[in-house]
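example protein:
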Amino acid sequence: MALQGPIPVSFDQVFPHGCYIVGEVEQVKDFDASTNGRTVYAKDKTTGELVWQVAVMDADPAVKVSQKTVAVKILAPVQPVPPPPVPGLPITPVEFDGMTVTPYVSQATGRLAYSIRATSMRAPRSAGPAKQPSAGKEMAA
């Protein structure tokens, strides 16, 4: 099969209605390599880049409440900086570049889930017209 590893996707495919930052950008710990008193941070197995994570809320109204918040992992040598807040909005809109998804079976539910990765984050390019509704999706990180 030609399709192996992370699957390249566009931001609009993953978040057709956009998304908002609802957490801090945090460095991901490598729990297997860490020991008592010594924290080791995760690096991407392919690129060697450090792995950071930020929680975002999917703005798609069709997504179940339990699936609204997902983690996006960002591969970068230094901590990514979120875009500045937008005056008048309680949460900050964000878009991601260089996105991939990796399907896996969640051990907790036994269902198909997706790990979402990106190479950078930024402010949305434009507000534009409302995007078309999408079918429900199951995301986990």
